[in-house]
Amino acid sequence: MTFRIALNFEDGATRFIDCNAGEKVLDAAYRNKINLPMDCSDGVCGTCKCRAEQGDYDLGDDYIDDALTAEEAEEGLVLTCQMVPSSDCVIAVPVPSSACKVKPADIAVELVAIERLSPHRVRVSIKATDAGLPAFLPGQYVNFAVPGSGGTQRSYSFSSAPGAEVATFLIRNIQGGRMGDYLGKRAATGDRLILNGPLGSFYLREPRRPMLMLAGGTGIAPILSMLEDLAAKGANGHAVRLLYGAHDAADLVEVERIEALAARIPGFTFATTCSGAGSDHPLTGHVTDHFGAADLNGGDADIYLCGPPEMVEAVRAHVASCGVTVANLYYEKFVPAQAEALAA
């Protein structure tokens, strides 16, 4: 029996390794040529301290309190030289990937479909070639090398579930943008594309409390990946609420998919809103207009937030103004490509 261990490094790079039953994470990492931080490997120095964000494991009792206190262990901190997984796990490693001789891999994939969902939204589907699709955590992204652009890369989050045979991405289609020009003028099914990753620290953690998900524009993509994972694995009985906003109603894409996910995730509700002037959408305004302190469960809530930088900052300010400190606020900004004024 083996367990899949995701090592998410400080810079967002992620590497998946297999850990054998009874094997310590540090040993499994070295076997996979990943030099996780360590000095003693005996549970004495604490150099290999990381955070287990998901999964079941045993730390044994062969380490000293100076290396890992009982309070730290209760909070999810672990010593990888002592940690023996009993399920798949996600571990946050507090150093850059380069310090552990890890570099995100280039992966060749095949373009399967290009679907225009609205004037400004395109869904791109890919499948594996010989190497297979990259493993990733729900919410993470990869870098696309734009064909024929002299090495230009663009970052896009998966909108599909990990392990799907066909992976999907939502792309904002900007006239004159390098990816937009490729997709609109030169792309053809069967094209070979090069991805690099997975990357990102914005990913779904193990559900431990109610979740509020807030998406703006193509920021819905990583949220969809998270919802697919929750549909497959469950939310541990916790409520999940999604608020999804766009300027124009036409750009509220994938709503039918969200409705289908609502039927698969107990306790999941969602609403959509449009911020464009004169909109006749049932809900208007920004996502911040549709939640307040009463929706934050007294602080016992996890928020997942993704969208353009101005939307992310507005939500963070709004949460702060509610006077409630939430357990966790995870966010990712879809930052424009400077040369082309691209935005999420």
TrEMBL record:
Which residue intervals define the domain FAD-binding FR-type in the entry?
104-205
The cross-references to SUPFAM superfamilies, in alphabetical order and at most eight, read: 2Fe-2S ferredoxin-like, Ferredoxin reductase-like, C-terminal NADP-linked domain, Riboflavin synthase domain-like
Going by the entry's taxonomy, the superkingdom of the source organism is recorded as: Bacteria
Q: Which UniProt keywords apply?
A: Dioxygenase, Oxidoreductase
Pfam families for the chain = FAD_binding_6 (PF00970), Fer2 (PF00111), NAD_binding_1 (PF00175)
Annotated GO MF terms: 2 iron, 2 sulfur cluster binding; dioxygenase activity
Query: What InterPro entries does UniProt report for this protein, alphabetically?
Result: 2Fe-2S_ferredoxin-like_sf (IPR036010), 2Fe-2S_ferredoxin-type (IPR001041), 2Fe2S_fd_BS (IPR006058), BenC-like_FAD_NAD-bd (IPR047683), Beta-grasp_dom_sf (IPR012675), Cbr1-like_FAD-bd_dom (IPR008333), FAD-bd_FR_type (IPR017927), Flavoprot_Pyr_Nucl_cyt_Rdtase (IPR001709)
Needed cofactors, names only, are:
[2Fe-2S] cluster
User: In what residue span(s) does the 2Fe-2S ferredoxin-type domain sit?
Assistant: 3-97
Q: What is this protein called?
A: Benzoate 1,2-dioxygenase electron transfer component
Species the sequence originates in:
Edaphosphingomonas haloaromaticamans
Which taxonomic lineage is given here? Bacteria, Pseudomonadati, Pseudomonadota, Alphaproteobacteria, Sphingomonadales
